[in-house]
Write a structure and sequence with these properties.
- This protein has 225 residues and is α/β, with parallel strands linked by helices.
- The chain has 2 domains: 102 residues, 3-Layer(aba) Sandwich (Rossmann fold), CATH 3.40.50.720; 77 residues, Orthogonal Bundle (Arc Repressor Mutant, subunit A), CATH 1.10.10.10.
- It contains 7 helices and 8 strands; from the N terminus they run ααααββαβαββββαβ.
- The strands form 3 sheets. It has a 4-stranded parallel beta sheet with strand order 4-3-7-8, sandwiched between helices. A two-stranded antiparallel ribbon has the order 1-2. It has a two-stranded antiparallel sheet with strand order 5-6.
- The N and C termini lie close together (5 Å).
- The N terminus is likely disordered.
């Protein structure tokens, strides 16, 4: 979903036009995958690799607590998705069952459907947004958030005269993304740009506050959620 920043701040006139554009082109609700299905799929994928990951490794991979992984594993064993053996004795091994393989196939198909719908809907809405920004004379944009949504935004930008001047993300400073080195928000005030598109996996409000503390006007911020 695309949102232009509001929260407790006033919305500039130019931003309101973009908000109307996005909200006026509503599509049927995107079919989402809940977190339980996503975690189940990830665990089944890891087990199917035959690497015998520990629960601690699974917790790190899923970015959840060890206790939550332990609860998930127990529930999945009860459902018959995999078996647990202790061969060798000092190492727990998970063995995927036919039922688990069938569930993995089902969830993989569901994930592919969701990913395709997400990509198609995002591309359409972003194309509309960038076309509107182009008509307002916007030519230089910074993407904040080195993630999947920013990759889709980058593809949409290529269809317009708009230039992506940088990718910023305080959690990925120095990493390579879309052919650029990711910069931190502290570098934004040294750049020349017309808008910052914010798509953060964490709190967008916190990112907006951080950027506004640099003296950057809210009028230049477009938030993608």
């Amino acid at each position: 979903m695309l949102l232009l920043y509001s929260a407790s701040h006033s919305i500039p006139q130019s931003i309101s036009r973009n908000q109307q554009l996005v909200s006026s082109n509503k599509q049927p609700a995107l079919k989402t995958m809940d977190n339980q299905d996503l975690r189940t799929l990830k665990i089944l994928e890891e087990i199917d690799k035959g690497n015998a990951p520990s629960q601690r490794e699974l917790a790190k991979e899923l970015n959840v607590s060890l206790g939550l992984v332990n609860s998930f594993v127990k529930r999945m064993v009860q459902k018959g998705y995999f078996k647990i053996t202790n061969i060798p004795k000092n190492r727990i091994k998970y063995i995927l069952t036919p039922k688990g393989a069938s569930e993995k196939t089902r969830l993989t198909y569901k994930y592919i459907q969701y990913s395709y719908q997400f990509y198609r809907e995002s591309r359409k809405k972003l194309s509309n947004l960038f076309n509107d920004l182009e008509s307002q004379g916007i030519r230089r944009i910074v993407l904040y958030g080195a993630n999947d949504f920013s990759e889709i935004a980058y593809l949409s930008i290529q269809e317009t005269p708009i230039e992506m001047v940088a990718v910023a993300d305080d959690e990925k400073i120095g990493e390579k993304f879309l052919g650029n080195r990711v910069i931190g928000s502290s570098m934004l005030d040294s750049l020349s740009f017309d808008r910052i598109l914010i798509s953060s996996l964490n709190s967008n409000d916190a990112v907006v506050d951080k950027i506004s503390e640099k003296g950057i006007s809210l009028e230049k911020l477009v938030v993608i959620e």
